[in-house]
Model the fold of this input.
Amino acid sequence: MRLIYLSSQTTLLSFITSKSDDKTLDTKKEKSLLQKKPKSQEKSKNNESKEIVIDKMHVEYNPKNTPPCILLDVDYDGREEKAYLKLYDPENNRLYIWYDNTNHHPYCLTDIPKEEIERNKDITGHPSYLGAEEVVKFDLLNEKSITMTKILARDPLAIGGSRDAIREKLKNRAWEAHIPYRKSYIMDLNLVPGAFYKVKDGALLPVSLKVIEQKYMDILPYFEKEYKENIDLLHSFIELFFTEIPNLKRVAMDIEVLSPGLDIVPDPNKAEHPVIAVSFSAKDGPKEIHVLRRSDIPEGNISLPPEVDVIYYDNEKELIKTVFERIKNIPILITFNGDNFDLKYLYNRAIALGFSHSEIPITKGKDVMNLKFGVHIDLYPFFHNRSINVYAFSMAYKEASLDAISKAILGKGKVELDKEIFELDLKTLAYYCYMDSEITYELTSYNDDLVMKMIILIMRISKMTIIDVTRQNISAWIRNMIYYEHRRNGYLIPRPEDILREKGQTSTKAIIKGKKYMGAIVVSPKAGIHFNVVVVDFASLYPSLIKQWNLSYETIRCHHPECRENRIPKTNHWVCTKRKGLTSVIVGLLRDLRIKWFKPKSKDKSIPESQRSTFKVIGQVLKVFINATYGVFGSEHFPLYCPPLAESTAALGRYSIEETYKKAEEMGMIPLYGDTDSLFILNPTRAQIDDLIKWSTEYLGIDLEIDKVYKWVALSSRKKNYLGLLQDGSIDVKGLLGKKRNTPEFCKKTFKSILGVLQKVETRDEFESAKKKILKIIQESYNKLEASQYSLQDLAIKVQLSKSLKEYTKTTPQHVKAALLLEQNGKRVVPGQIVHYVKTVTPPGVKPVELAKLSEIDIAKYKDYLRTTLEQVLDALEIDFETVSGVSQISSWFD
DNA sequence: GCGGACTGCTTACCT
DNA sequence: ACAGGTAAGCAGTCCGCG
Done:
């Protein structure tokens, strides 16, 4: 490791954001900071001088010509009154900033005639008003062409977003007035963020970089036949997936700020305290830590990783200047929570220290911090995204903290500290700070850059920028994808009130109070141990139904009298027989691409491994979109919210599973249980299953598949509660208390050892001997509990706070009581935090683990806990708790 | 005044 | 801030009880 001391003045380039011709941000004026002599008296431990290698990124404005670049970002420049694109050339590490030269302007639509608008002084007198023109749109809700008036303005805020905006003047006669300008621009120019473009003679042109070889395209004719009415849609989507996914150069960053005291997180809006460390990490790029010396803090003597450079400063301003130089040369900056902390803090701190805006390479948005050159990806909102957690990472992490995510995904967490940040010696601080950025980087690089690939694919499918994709949720991705297809086809984008007025009614009653319509059905399980159970399920049931039944907001309850016969079973709804529904086609295509192409191809051994893994990622990303489409149409916040559409999908789901249940019985099979899209069938023959699958394809038009086969499955009398031994010898547990997060660890441990016994059981006889072993395990656990041998951590009940403490107004649950005690003792409690508490006798109630003693534990309450947890297992195994306790020497365990 | 029956709130799970 | 369905524990309320 080399230490570099630095505190002298450096000249920062002023950032140029004005237009004119090609402006190249040349970095040659910049002297290497590292060549400057150390001012500090101290000697470097290693005299060998090494240049820190950070490739300078070349930035060019308004390029005339460029090589193929990936489109990363689109935004509006207020000073230029133009949209601009950030195009990155990964080969040569060059960033091009291309300003719109197509004379595109912000606009909204209205049904008020053009002449009337032109007579309206209130609108034409708006300082930003540019003009009005007639456009013809197709109104899907009323199935007719209409002439609309397009009102153009110089500034997006003039359309919507300010008090005197044109959309406010139009009252309820404005359409497409809530679409952010950058998104509207992308749609109108038919751009695909994440795809390749080049500039030729100043004009922006798409570049096709196909990587899929012709020999893998064998299935295309099938798709072309099925989608002949939507061949453009098919080809555009296929192109997205068959275009090379480039490897993007990126650097992760993390900062530490001097906190004034225990448990006080510095406020990034005030930025009152000094930045004491900033680290950068990249696989093939810089690994640096910039550390501020403080008179009261020793340097320390831990050894840091040899590949890392530590640079010390005596002056915070100098530190920040150097950090800004680094940021200027980073095309993609990765942070964890940079929007709300790291970048916001640096920005505000720089302002507070007297930096001018032109010296700061960071831009501040309402909720997003971005870079002037390059783009900023904040991994926190991306990993926090529920769809990503569930479908891409199979719920690997339960809490969206850097520590929890990296532990779950990388197998290593943050550096554990036994002191507060402000107490650490400089080297320990440097190490801590560096490891955070290293982990952050690794979250994007692990598994062959999986996360980066996913982000690029989501950009291409949703047509959203890297900035928006990483910060917005699945509903925004789907909304934008559907809006884009509206614009491409000249369809008017309907307003929420238009859809609700035409379609907004449900006809079923939800089982759960407060829900809008009836959802899936769960078949009551036949309790007991069943051997040789085959589970069949429908592949992507809801998306399949949406495709099969032509479900879309414009086709459900359409206006044609003749379609009213085409009923959705057990609802008042019908669906159009004349027009193909747009969302039905889009979802159907994504579903077919996944099921008929990417899923099988990702398992095809004749395809090279790297190609297969790309197919696998594409399949995963498609799954995210497909699985959420039904849900968004049932969500009030979704602007295409269509209750009868969501209700019909669920109703058809119930119909499908009910018909299949009946058919299975008719065919002589014994269905034991089913949930939403699955059926558990007792010991069927291969032929029976094949017949059922064939029937489903022919009669329902939906693919039924074998999901899993149990050697035995123990169904309890409760729904969504069972365990079984799969053919591969693994135990499958669903819904039982033993796997819930809030169950104390000692219960889970006991539960797990019981599972260990059950895993070896294959026949009914073996269950008998297993019972004895299980009994012994329970007894041991019970004795340990009685003898207070479990630690507080083992006994802790871990419950997440879903909101801030003061929002619990109706009741005060136990974890809230414990959290209140924590707060009284000066500990910080935030929403999302998991509270660890134990049940106590003295005083009766609960205490957070931090404040409790083993002697205070209410052992009786824990006996109850152990009993209920294990009863669920024993219940499923047909072991009566009373019987077991009778066999035991202890006559009654749990009194 | 106290305990059981009941409802509602909250969390964590399943599909 | 993609849906609804199920289980469990506890908080709070009502009601009966001389």
